């Protein structure tokens, strides 16, 4: 009759224990990542719905403000007011609730803060986390953060012999084009003729973009931007908006 060897059984159990532990950790990580993807998709859907509602709301506000006797210039003036109201009533609380406060966003911001501080000479928090060890989720978030930050840093430090990219002017021109298209769309919806006035409307769109974004780079790019170029002029924007998008660089 064969008897079991307790030592062999114990050795087999000791070998299997790390594999089981690793399998449980991988399963838990996969569950967390799946939940993160679901929350991200839900936040993206909520953001898209909010944007669509905002577009409808401001279009209706503009159409109500346009009188039956209005001409294309009047529409432009009312559109200016609508754009300023949009900027002043930006609903940051909504974004905090629908997007920024999701667990996924919190993880993203946590790792961006750790890596960003380390790259700016304050690595203590990142080193403390690394010494504590990385879970599978941590490894993925760290990789995603580095993939987001490092190319941007490389692009800032890269010296080229070509023309400057004029990011500030390009972004201002994009705003002017958006204003011009909104103006054309409002004229069409309200049956107001603007044929032959396209150049004047583009001129005014560039003036308005300079008023809103031509003096303070933070209005376009946020508070943390480091912009090493002169503010764009009306002439810069006017030149850019007549170019195809691929040639605005």
Short description:
With 249 residues, the chain is mainly α.
The parts where pLDDT drops under 50 for at least 5 residues are 91-96
Largest sheet: none
Topology, number of strands: 0
Through-space gap between termini = 85 Å
What's the number of domains? 2
Average the pLDDT over all residues and give the rounded result.
77
- Summed up, the helix count is 10
What is the alpha-carbon Rg in Å?
27 Å
Overall geometry comes to: elongated
Report the order of strands and helices.
HHHHHHHHHH
Q: What is the share of helical residues?
A: over 70%
Roughly what fraction of the amino acids lie in strands?
Answer: under 5%
- Classify the secondary structure makeup into a structural class: mainly alpha
Describe this structure in words.
- By secondary structure, the chain is mainly alpha-helical.
- The chain has two domains: 28-54 and 92-155, no CATH class; 164-249, no CATH class.
- 74% of the residues lie in helices and 0% in strands.
- Helix 8 (198-213) packs across helix 10.
- It is elongated.
- The termini are far apart.
Provide tags for this entry:
mainly alpha; 249 residues; 0% strand
């Amino acid at each position: 009759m064969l008897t079991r060897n307790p030592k062999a059984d114990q050795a087999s159990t000791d070998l299997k224990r790390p594999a089981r532990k690793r399998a449980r950790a991988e399963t838990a990580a996969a569950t967390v990542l799946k939940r993160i993807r679901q929350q991200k998709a839900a936040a993206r859907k909520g953001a898209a719905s909010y944007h669509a509602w905002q577009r409808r709301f401001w279009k209706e506000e503009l159409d109500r403000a346009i009188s039956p006797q209005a001409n294309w210039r009047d529409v432009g003036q009312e559109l200016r007011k609508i754009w300023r109201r949009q900027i002043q009533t930006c609903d940051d609380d909504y974004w905090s609730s629908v997007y920024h406060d999701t667990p996924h966003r919190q993880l993203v911001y946590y790792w961006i803060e750790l890596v960003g501080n380390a790259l700016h000479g304050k690595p203590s928090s990142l080193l403390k986390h690394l010494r504590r060890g990385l879970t599978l989720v941590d490894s993925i978030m760290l990789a995603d953060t580095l993939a987001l930050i490092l190319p941007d840093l490389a692009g800032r430090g890269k010296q080229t012999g070509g023309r400057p990219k004029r990011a500030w002017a390009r972004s201002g021109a994009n705003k002017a084009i958006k204003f011009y298209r909104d103006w054309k769309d409002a004229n069409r919806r309200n049956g107001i003729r603007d044929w032959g006035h396209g150049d004047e409307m583009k001129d005014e769109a560039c003036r308005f973009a300079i008023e809103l974004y031509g003096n303070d780079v933070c209005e376009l790019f946020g508070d943390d931007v480091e912009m090493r170029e002169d503010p764009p002029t009306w002439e810069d924007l006017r030149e850019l908006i007549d170019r195809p998008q691929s040639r605005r660089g």
